[in-house]
Design brief:
Largest sheet of chain C: 2 strands, antiparallel
Number of strands of chain C: 2
Chains: A alpha/beta, B mainly alpha, C mainly alpha
Strand content of chain A: 25-35%
Strand content of chain C: under 5%
CATH topology of the largest domain in chain A: Rossmann fold
Order of helices and strands of chain C: HHHHEHHHHEHHH
CATH superfamily of the largest domain in chain A: P-loop containing nucleotide triphosphate hydrolases
Helix content of chain A: 25-40%
Number of domains of chain A: 2
Shape of chain A: globular
CATH architecture of the largest domain in chain A: 3-Layer(aba) Sandwich
Strand order of the largest sheet of chain A: 6-9-10-3-11-12
Oligomer: heterotrimer
Largest interface: B-C, 47 and 46 residues
Number of helices of chain A: 17
Shape of chain C: globular
Chain lengths: 511, 338, 289
């Protein structure tokens, strides 16, 4: 360790409060040494992304100071951070779809020749950098044609092109297949070897232990520890991440009698669906969800999960094939018809697709059932009945709120998701299609969501559960289907679905 | 807490006050006396029973077209086309008013109103349908349809629909059986004001108490969530626009049956555009729209009087409107949702 | 019809088309400047009106060139007002545009009466020394080319296009997006003001109530029909200008009603919006969080 060199980054006592009183960062300090890979771990909501936003100048801290290479700096906007050699690769790409990958990289730091944009010089420099980092991207392709993995690589080159000496990667492997993640960490090692630092955020302990030199652990907006990775272990990290009291909490799969599955709840036959831009996203998919069963669907992000789910619930037209609910063909019928017939849906993005944030809770719970007399709906709404129904659902699902007339925006993320799930289950559906229903939730809220779902599976509801989190899938599913490139690459029983086997199916499409 | 409760009332009042201050400064800067102008304005709009009735009569088309813009706004759509829908509604009512003869008033008047409602609604359904199913922006389309409606009406009243006995580009007078009751004091106050109030109540019930109203509000506040929950977003958009156009068409029909008794080319001084200010100041709610239409009706009634007595050009009322939109619009409809 | 005869018919028609298209091209470039940085601009109409009025008033006092200067200055201020209202007051872009149009219409008619002490129609103010229309036409056509080159072949153009597609991503890339937007809206106002000055100082030599009479909206229509590109917008403007010229030419001579010809740009725009499904810049109209 070159103790005489100043740290590449030294953040002191960073505090950030959001309007509404949430303290995202409470006096957090962080030191990153030059030439190291430094992991920042913590659960969702621990304050990782806020801390990185502060370092990149996109989040203004309320208190605290930052030094880069020993000199104090003020980072008011990303441009300041870039000037000081900070680069950020966000979880969701910032590459602009309408521009080419090259233009995206050059944007803001354009080489100029006679007053015009010198794309030739720019391209030469970009190709130099990507060759050094072992990255290959089709630079002249428009960004909307690149894969998630390619966009991420382009983002890394974009940061390097801006002269990044400290590269921040925010949950870089969240949307990558295991093999792609390994390739990414090879790139990271190359960058570290060149003397720059990489700061990566994750909640996967394996990545921390295998790929970082140092690790900082956050919990609930505060720092709970700094460790040299070689001197710590998974157990210690878990207790620092979750707190000693909560480290025992796991998603317990209740013992269930593995009697022979009986009827079919939801069936998908040879379904082909087009995705964005008319490209086929799902090819001839066959799936059968039995009553009372959770069928998990694994796959690299963007393998056609979203399109498949939307086609099943009626949000996306199908090219060919059919969707059957308890043997009844519902292909081609509307979302409302399928919902009434018994297909419930928990969408991926609860703020945009799940809830109407400016509606109150009663209205949100009524949405979709507003033509349903039993919920107080109908051509004319029965206000008293709507409120009573909402009151009942809120109590049953344990939503912490100020009553059915409080706006959905006033709830925490976990409680919002409980509302979404409560609404989906309110009609006692025969099948549930759920897209990452616990993404971004803490352990307690996740457990509540699965408890609610289980109460209905016990009564015979079949569940099609889409998730990117293999651990979660293996815990809650009876069987796991794997999607690869829009096809169902295989369906494994829970007992035979090891991570390696799943990973191989996810990345190669073959067992 | 109390302050937050009162905000929906206080904010519009402040924007109106601010607008009056700005207008006062303009009058003063141009060498007039703002206080003299204001007192003339008040005298003209509510200083006499005729003045009051004139205020209500000016408020009538503003209330209806303001409701039209508000209903579309609640669905997240900008209906800039109320003017065109109003013009075509008026034309249809005028046609039904003189084409049918020998009907009793209780049949003839509803027929004429229905003609206006129908034509206005259909005309507005076009941008609604284009938005819902082709993704064309309703603002661009409604602006274009305004000009088309103006040209089309101009063409008709200078041609086939022109009253041969009249010099002016206008249709024939409507039958007496198609005329709404109106005050005889020259205030142009007619039974149309009552119809407009009824429409406001109807819109309030629709938005708060019916499934269609619920769908309209859901689409306006969260189209994606509504779609996922099974609401047919496209159909709701078309319904909202058709409803919006129907209200604007009704405004036009009432102007014909209650005030002009015929379709007169370029009769609308831009009610359809003023209605945007009315709807925004009223916060898109029927009660708010009613109050703000009374305010702008009074402004319009008083401004003519003020111009006659103080030589301050009546266009100052338009300046007040512009400033009101700036300050009242700030709290409503932040950004567009796609 | 012989060649010379045809030329004798078409030449004046072509010249008239260019005269009608010039303000559309100028204002249309203004529309592109604004919408390409993400701000919906239905305020072109009001900006033109403000420019036309100021241009005439200043032109009467200090000569037409000073008038043009005053017109572009006021246009720029109106453009920046639109930016301020949408960014700082967080107004919906359409609301701000409607307010600006109303304010421009009513304050010009108000001031026209006040400054020129007129009450009776027709209310108008005249100017004796006019500028040649060809000057404006030449400038407009040259600017189309310049804008095309800037937009696609310079760093500034890349930044403008990026801001219109995603301001958040562009800021993350290290670009001062506030400056790009300010530049866009200032340019938008300057160009629309110039278009207004053309109307009052070069084309007719007077100002009368609502004299822009919808040309700002037609310019916006040309922007949409031209898919937010300078060349496409210019082509649409020329087509609209030609229709306008044709309508003047045919007035009274054929049974074709003028209303129909005048309606063609509106119909064309609705059809274009329907059939071409033009894709606007992705961030157009978005309010920042």
């Amino acid at each position: 360790m070159r103790a005489d060199n100043p740290p590449a980054v030294h953040m002191r006592n960073i505090t950030k409060r959001y309007p509404g009183g949430v303290v995202a960062n409470n006096a957090i300090s962080l030191t990153v040494l030059p030439g190291t890979a430094h992991a920042v771990v913590g659960e969702n909501g621990a304050g990782k992304s806020t801390l990185m936003g502060v370092l990149y100048g996109s989040v203004r801290p309320d208190a605290g100071s930052i030094e880069i290479d020993g000199a104090p700096v003020t980072l008011r906007r990303p441009a300041d951070a870039i000037r000081h050699g900070i680069g950020l690769v966000t979880q969701h790409t910032t590459m602009i779809p309408a521009l080419t990958a090259l233009d995206n990289v050059l944007l803001g730091f354009e080489p100029v020749r006679f007053g015009t944009l010198d794309r030739r010089t720019g391209r030469r420099r970009v190709e130099e950098l990507s060759a050094q980092a072992g990255i290959e991207v089709d630079w002249l392709a428009s960004a909307d044609t690149l894969s998630v993995a390619a966009l991420q690589k382009a983002e890394i080159v974009k940061a390097l092109y801006r002269g990044a000496r400290v590269l921040i990667l925010d949950e870089p492997t969240a949307t990558l297949a295991p093999a792609e993640a390994d390739r990414l960490f090879a790139v990271v090692q190359g960058i570290v070897a060149s003397g720059a630092s990489v700061l990566f955020i994750t909640h996967k302990l394996r990545e921390v232990l295998e790929h970082s030199g140092h690790v900082t652990i956050l919990r609930g907006g505060a720092k709970t520890g700094d460790r040299v990775t070689s001197e710590t272990n998974a157990d210690e990290l878990v207790s620092l991440m979750l707190g000693a009291d909560r480290s025992a909490v796991r998603l317990e799969q209740p013992q269930r009698d593995r009697s022979e599955p009986s009827d079919v709840s939801l069936q998908v036959r040879a379904l082909t669906v087009r995705g964005r831009g008319g490209r086929p996203a799902v090819h001839s998919a066959d799936l059968t969800v039995r009553t009372g069963e959770v069928l998990g669907v694994a796959g690299v992000d963007g393998s056609g999960q979203r399109e498949l789910a939307e086609a099943i619930v009626g949000l996306r037209p199908t090219v060919s094939g059919s969707v059957l609910l308890c043997g009844e063909d519902v292909t081609g019928s509307s979302v409302a018809f399928r919902a009434a017939a018994g297909i419930a849906y928990v969408p991926e993005d609860r703020h945009r697709e799940g809830l109407i944030l400016d509606f109150d809770l009663a209205e949100n719970l009524l949405l979709g059932r507003h033509r349903d007399a039993s919920a107080g709906g109908g051509r004319f709404l029965q206000r008293r009945r709507v409120l009573a129904d909402a009151e009942r659902l809120l109590t049953e699902s344990g939503v912490a709120s100020a009553g059915p007339l409080s706006p959905a925006s006033s709830l925490s993320g976990g409680n919002q998701q409980k509302v979404v799930v409560a609404r989906a289950l309110a009609r006692n559906p025969r099948a549930l299609v759920a897209m990452q229903p616990t993404r971004g939730l803490d352990v307690g809220a996740s457990a509540a969501v699965y408890d609610a779902i289980r109460a209905h599976t016990a009564a015979g509801m079949g569940v099609l559960l889409f998730s990117l989190d293999l651990d979660e899938l293996r815990e809650v599913s009876d069987r796991i289907a794997v999607m690869y490139n829009g096809r169902i690459a295989g369906v494994l029983d829970r007992d035979e679905a090891g991570v390696e086997r799943l990973g191989k199916l996810m990345t190669e499409g073959r067992p | 807490m109390i302050l937050r409760r009162l905000a929906p009332v206080v904010q519009p009042l402040l924007s109106v006050l601010g607008a009056f201050v700005v207008a006062g400064i303009v009058v003063w800067a141009c060498g007039g006396s703002p206080f003299e102008a204001l007192s003339a304005l008040l005298q003209g709009s509510c200083g006499s029973s005729t003045g009051l009735l004139r205020t209500l009569s000016k408020a009538t088309p503003l209330l209806l077209s303001g409701l039209a813009v508000a209903v579309a706004l609640r669905a997240g759509l900008f209906n800039i086309g109320a003017e065109g829908q109003l013009i075509l509604g008026a034309l249809a009512a005028a046609w039904a008013g003189h084409a049918f003869t020998g009907l009793p008033a209780w049949i003839h008047i509803p027929i004429c109103l229905a003609a206006g409602v129908l034509v206005g609604g259909l005309w507005a359904a076009i941008p609604g349908a284009l938005r819902a199913w082709r993704g064309s922006h309703e603002v661009i389309v409604t602006i274009m349809l305004n000009y088309l409606a103006i040209q089309f009406a101009h063409f008709l009243v200078n041609g086939v629909m022109k009253d041969p006995g009249s010099m002016a580009p206008a249709t024939a007078m409507v039958e007496p059986s198609a005329r709404l009751w109106a005050a005889a004091d020259g205030s142009n106050f007619s039974a149309g004001f009552g119809l407009a109030l009824l429409a406001a109540v109807g819109v309030a019930v629709l938005l708060r108490r019916t499934a269609l109203g619920f769908e309209i509000r859901a689409v306006g506040l969260g189209a994606d969530a509504a779609r996922v929950a099974g609401v047919n977003v496209g159909r709701t958009m078309v319904s909202a626009m058709a409803l919006s156009g129907a209200l604007a068409g009704l405004a036009g029909a009432i102007e014909v049956l209650g005030v002009h008794r015929r379709y007169l080319d370029a009769f609308s001084p831009g009610y359809g555009f003023d209605s945007i200010a009315v709807a925004l100041l009223g916060g898109g709610s029927p009660v708010g729209v009613t109050l703000s239409s009374l305010l702008f009706g009074g402004l319009s009634a008083g401004a003519t009087y003020m111009e006659a007595w103080t030589h301050v050009p009546r266009q100052i009322a338009g300046i007040v409107q512009g400033v009101v939109i700036f300050s009242a619009g700030a709290r409503y409809l932040k950004g567009r949702r796609r | 019809m012989s060649g010379p005869e045809l030329a004798g018919l078409l030449l004046p028609l072509g010249v008239a088309a260019l005269r009608q298209a010039t303000p559309l091209v100028l204002a249309g470039l203004g529309g592109i400047c604004s919408e390409r940085v993400g701000i919906v601009n239905i305020a072109l109409e009001g900006m033109m009106l403000a420019g036309a009025f100021t241009g005439l008033v200043a032109g009467r006092l200090a000569g037409p060139l000073v008038g043009v200067l005053a017109a572009v200055t006021v246009g720029m201020l109106v453009g920046l007002t639109h930016l301020w209202a949408t960014r700082k007051l967080r107004l919906n872009h359409i609301v701000s545009g409607v307010a600006i149009n109303l304010l421009a219409l009513h304050s010009t008619t108000f001031l026209l009466r006040r400054l020129f002490n007129q009450a009776d129609p027709p209310v108008e103010a005249r100017i004796e020394s006019m500028l040649p229309t060809s000057l404006f036409t030449g400038v407009a056509l040259a600017l189309v080319l310049v804008f095309h080159l800037v937009l696609y072949y310079t760093p500034l153009g890349l930044r403008i296009r990026a801001v219109g597609e995603s301001e958040a991503s562009t800021r993350m890339a290290g670009v001062d997006t506030a400056r790009v937007k300010m530049l866009g809206l200032a340019a938008s106002g300057v160009l629309a003001g110039l278009a207004g000055a053309y109307l009052s100082l070069a084309q007719v030599g007077r100002f009368s109530d609502d004299m822009v009479s919808g040309r700002g909206f037609i310019a916006l229509a040309a922007v949409v029909c031209g898919r937010w590109t300078p060349l496409g917008m210019a082509a649409a403007s020329l087509a609209f200008g030609a229709l306008d010229a044709l309508q003047f030419h045919l007035q009274g001579s054929v049974a074709l009603p003028g209303e129909l010809l005048r309606s063609i740009p509106y119909i064309a725009t609705v059809v274009a919006a329907m059939a071409l499904r033009p894709r606007p810049p992705a961030d157009l109209g978005r309010q920042e969080e």
